[in-house]
Design goal:
The structure is a homodimer. The first copy, chain A, is built from 23 helices and 29 strands. By secondary structure, chain A is of the alpha/beta class. The first copy, chain A, has a seven-stranded mixed beta sheet with strand order 9-8-11-10-12-13-14, sandwiched between helices. In chain A, strands 24, 25, 26, 27, 28 and 29 form a six-stranded antiparallel beta sheet that branches. The first copy, chain A, is flat. Chain A starts with a helix and ends with a strand.
Chain lengths: 710, 710
């Protein structure tokens, strides 16, 4: 049985234990061991707890055991708060006692350096030996709000309320801030896990657990280190496609300095943030910039349905915020709904003359609940409306709580999402509480409301996208020859491939390298030229000549048999005159590449995500505008198209500025082949095709230059 | 005396009235007139109020007058809450009574269409006649927290506390949300003004008033319509340079849809948002994206000194948030301070071994107040530190309030800014209150803390920038001739200038147009070519020939006398052969432009800001990347440099990608001349120089093509 299957079996004991041993408990208030026992007790846990303490006979009035093995009855879960130096002994005892699940709170492992890393390896080995699954070490603990268990196995100050958001965090201390913030916003959680150094149970195991958890609708993830990016991507794709549950993630350590700070406190190493961004997008993970944005988005997913389309009706009692919301919504790519004639007729009949009955609807400062109710109700009925945004400012006559309650009531009888922005703080607090408690997502800023809705809308649109791998016949790839080219070079301890080997290798994957031939006579040159077709290029081949142009050793754009013969002899003559000592190996004959768009393709290796494919338009676009995009291999056709469209310059391939339509199909093909190559040949450290010349539609493309690093 | 001088005299009566008449007061709770009287009473106003009501004999126990002229003693300020239809009569009475200041709360003016606009004009006329200054109409009122007066002349639900932030808003309803939000954050105000339709007193008058107000340190402005952008810019520049007070602004109506919404509720018309952005930057106005960002930035300015430099020390009790803060700070362009050896020695001696003593300093989850105190104090002492960010997460043992108080105490003895991010909500609330009440700006998000600090830092750096107009000799401009070219064209009802007139006009401003000459003989061509110098171009001139290349009517890159003669005759021959019917006017001789970078310059007219200069790199940069920048004329040298540097492609002028250094000095010159031209010649509606060929350093530039629209 794989370790992840073992975890799957043991998760019930982690989250729904019937009995818990707290190992290392004490009676000193304000210490972690004491706080944890107290947390469990005051959260009204539905089970038995066994404090284990070498010194105390009882903890908080409960009989204490000296060793875990002394406990008479079976125990489901152990919470370990002993110093890291003795955790190995504890784990051994858990094994002997037959306890299969543990939460190791104790710090002093990988994050403190080599001694700690050694300890971490030790406990992991013992856990593997006994089939134990553990969370941590170096974590805050686990919370399960399910009333069946009411478990607060953590030293968080408080137990959150029940909800449908699952939260997973690599940082323990951040959790305390998150719990405090969430409580103030009436945000509930299904499961709340601080997983610390993830020495045994990883974020991927936990993601799968939450995917299966019927209490969890939205999954949040705070990460500093992605140990196995590929696995995380696969897991996310799998969960999203099978369950439709969104995964929202914060990945800290975006900058080099931030990554260094992360390394020093969790011993982790961050990869390139650009690649992480691309990988998340590819996997469907919604990346959030900060904690507030994460919760703003989370409540939208948790509380309201996914909209069918993006036509929004705005209702406000204040013109200014109506304008701000309209600005935000348009900026986010949403649309202002256009009301039907029926709706417009009703608004114009019922609303006061000073009201603005067009979207955004301004019900005017003196609006009471009746106007709000009418406009919200009629908006929801209108087929041209997919969602409703309600804005309220606290004017002296505004019936804040009544309006909140009526929005809640209206929302219960419809399937379109309703979002609110009750602006302000104290005056609107009671109204907001009514909204939040009844699953209406409320935002202080209309801008945050619009942004959150947009995330949900985009997620819904992406759910139906086609993630199939590009359907090309891989059997045509000559993988064996490619491998032998690489082994040969590696045996010769080369750090890169020569030009001809590079071309040979790319040919193995049917990539459009230019066939070339070194002719020893004008006749040979003619016969090869006729074989590959005109126009062609002739170039001197000599180890003694570095700058071929300087000796007039190149003739471009040769169109006919006669020109080949003439070109051949003129090159020989020029070289003999200008570089009489040079040893001539022959004349290279190659197809002349027509003019086209220069693009750059490449392969990089990321520590965490593995083979990464790079794309960008050549020249200034990559270097000045950094207009490049990345995708983790293997690439689906959707990936390929989106990575091209993600660059601003992509317009230039599709006829912008009166340019010709380029042969993007052949570009798709090359990117897909590059993806196959990257996966088949891990010996290649880096590959650059710079440039690939992309011709007009149906005319293909050619590799003008390429480099392969080993 | 100008109206703005009259306002200046009358402002004392608006903000510090000794007596107030409330005209249109009533006894109906929950109505605006009643709420205003009550607001004034409960705010403990230090003066006399006179309710004026045609019906009531007393309002809230105070004797009411039938007409304002019935009041026996002089009155400083009138608050008008009568229906808009009778406001003209009220204004007349104010004039008769000698009241010089009014706040017109009543709606029903410009914002409701043509009838309202007429009413607005009427009251403005009466005010002008009597020298009355008024705020509004269609506004929430005015608040002055100065204890000398304690004035809440508004129908806001509450009076804010005293502070050093002045707030000006075009939207009244937004004010209610702002006041509510500000109260919850313990943010105080000096003056708070809802100026509505600004029919008389404008935002500019109010900005100058706050600039002179010793109680105001930071000025906030919410705008939907900028009636006179140029005046706003001049006012802002003036205030910032003379007083150093920052102006933070939100300009709503950024999108077309948002602007349309704004128009429908204030009758205002928004200009281009891109140009507004440029104008604000140029004027030093800090543009905020939303209300929260505005207050985040405002408290930074209001509470803490401007930092000398951008080296920040981060202190945290949680690794994760330390990483997030580091990421944010680097992204914002700030620097992580490197501690001196002394500081490092102290940290390594005093902090626990598990702590991270490098910046960001992690004092570890169990840190109490002593560790925070030490690290903050020592950071502030370190010469390598310019500012301190303190992060706190509420862990079970964290002494939140004590730490807050100690930060406050430490801050009192130093001149470097301290910012905090006490993360969470309820648990940290009491600590945050201590910080806020003692002028330590606190942020839920470390990202907002970093962003706000960055705004203050950048403002400080810009305070010293040189805004002088580029020092060129304007007397060389032949303005008279330029004007006569334009009058001539306008008389002929032309909508654009012909090529030769365009060149003539640009020459009047010494812009580098290419001199050209139509030769009737090869000799003439030679003599002109020798005058302007080789290489030159020859082109056929004939009204019958549209495509000169098609008839081989162009010869490029002519290097010598002989080539001129040869080129001349070959063109004549070609044309006679290929277009035998064409009437030949002669052959144009012009300098051949060497290769260089193509840039685009232009003039546009903005409804609100007037003449605007545009700059961008030619080709794809403008069209695909929209890599252009704008500045409002006249341009200072700083404006010119910053508008070029604001484009990403500007690197290409300064040697990026192995390109030559271009002659940017000549580009500065052209932009400056264009700015002069734009101001001198308002008849020009639009001007496009596309492209200007910018040569290598010291080689100048040439206009290859230009169009002038009238």
């Amino acid at each position: 049985m794989s370790k992840s299957d073992i975890h799957k079996n043991n998760f019930k004991s982690v989250f729904y234990p019937k009995s818990i041993a707290i190992i290392g408990a004490n009676n000193v208030e304000g210490t972690v061991p004491y706080d944890i026992v107290k947390s469990i007790l005051i959260s009204n846990y539905k089970g038995i707890i066994y404090p284990v303490s070498p010194k105390e006979t009882s903890i908080l009035n409960i009989k204490a055991y000296k060793y875990v093995i002394d406990i008479e009855l079976p125990v489901d879960l152990a919470i370990v708060v002993f110093p890291s130096s003795v955790c190995n002994l504890v784990l051994e005892q858990l094994g002997q006692k037959g306890i299969k699940a543990a939460i190791i709170i104790s710090a002093g492992f990988k994050e403190v350096g080599s001694v700690g890393l050694e300890r971490e390896k030790q406990i992991k080995e013992i856990a593997d030996k006994y089939g134990i699954s553990f969370i941590g070490p170096n974590c805050l603990g686990v919370i399960n709000t399910d009333p069946k268990v009411n478990l607060n196995a953590s030293f968080a100050r408080k137990m959150p309320s029940e909800g449908n958001i699952g939260f997973l965090s690599q940082s323990g201390a951040l959790c305390t801030a998150v719990l405090d913030y969430a409580q103030s916003k009436n945000i509930g959680f299904s499961k709340f896990v601080s997983f610390g150094n993830k020495a045994d149970i990883s974020e991927i195991d936990l993601l799968y657990y939450l995917a299966d958890d019927p209490k969890t609708k939205v999954i949040l993830l705070y990460l500093e280190e992605i140990s196995d990016g590929k696995a995380l991507m696969d897991c996310a794709k799998d969960i999203i496609s099978k369950t439709g549950k969104p995964i929202l993630a914060i990945k800290a350590g975006r900058t080099n300095e931030g990554a260094a700070a992360a390394a020093s406190h969790t011993g982790s190493l961050a990869g390139s943030d650009e690649i992480c961004n691309a990988a998340f997008e590819q996997a469907g993970i919604i990346r959030c910039n900060d904690i507030l944005e994460m919760f703003d988005t989370a409540i939208a997913f948790a509380y309201q349905p996914i909209p069918k389309n993006n036509r929004v009706s705005i209702i406000t009692n204040a013109g200014g915020p109506g304008v701000l919301t309209t600005d935000a919504l348009i900026k986010d790519g949403l649309k202002l709904a256009k009301f039907s004639e029926e709706t417009t007729a009703i608004f114009s009949k019922v609303l006061p003359k000073t009201a603005n009955i067009k979207n955004p609807v301004d019900v005017i400062g003196d609006a009471k609940a009746d106007r709000y109710n009418l406009v919200v109700t009629e908006s929801l009925k209108d087929d041209n409306v997919d969602a409703v945004f309600v804005i309220l400012t606290p004017q002296s006559m505004t019936e804040i709580e009544i309006i909140a309650q009526e929005i809640v009531d209206v929302s219960k009888n419809n399937s379109k999402p309703i979002y609110t922005s009750f602006m302000g703080a104290t005056d609107v607090a009671a109204g907001i509480r009514i909204l939040e408690k009844n699953n209406i997502p409320n935002y202080t800023l209309p801008e945050s409301m619009s942004k959150s809705f947009t995330s949900v809308f985009n997620f819904g649109q992406n759910l139906n996208r086609n993630g199939a791998v590009y359907n090309l016949d891989k059997t045509q790839n000559n993988v064996e020859m490619a491998k032998s080219i690489l082994s040969e070079a590696l045996e010769e301890k080369k750090s890169y491939l020569t030009e001809d080997k590079t071309n040979q290798l790319l040919s193995c994957y049917n990539l459009p390298v230019l066939e070339s031939f070194v002719a020893s006579s004008a006749e040979e040159a003619v016969s090869f030229a006729e074989k590959i077709g005109f126009p062609i290029v002739l170039k001197i081949v000599s180890d003694d000549i570095v700058h071929k142009f300087d000796v007039n050793g190149i003739v471009l754009d040769i169109q006919s048999r006669e020109e080949v013969i003439q070109g051949y002899s003129s090159i020989i003559e020029n070289v003999m005159q200008l570089a009489p000592e040079a040893k001539i190996k022959g004349i290279l004959v190659r197809k002349m590449i027509p003019k086209g768009e220069e693009v750059i393709l490449g392969i990089k290796r990321d520590n965490s995500f593995g083979p990464v494919i790079m794309y960008g338009l050549g020249g200034v676009f990559v270097e000045v505008f950094r207009d490049v995009s990345f995708r983790v291999a293997p690439l689906s056709l959707h990936d390929i198209k989106s990575m091209i469209l993600n660059t601003k310059s992509s317009k230039l391939l599709f006829g912008a500025r009166g340019k010709n339509l380029r042969d993007v199909e052949s570009l798709y093909y090359c990117l897909s082949k590059l993806s196959e190559l990257a996966i088949d040949l891990p010996q290649i450290k880096e590959l650059d095709i710079n440039p690939l010349i992309l011709l007009d539609i149906n005319k293909g493309c050619y590799i003008a230059d390429a480099k392969i690093m080993l």
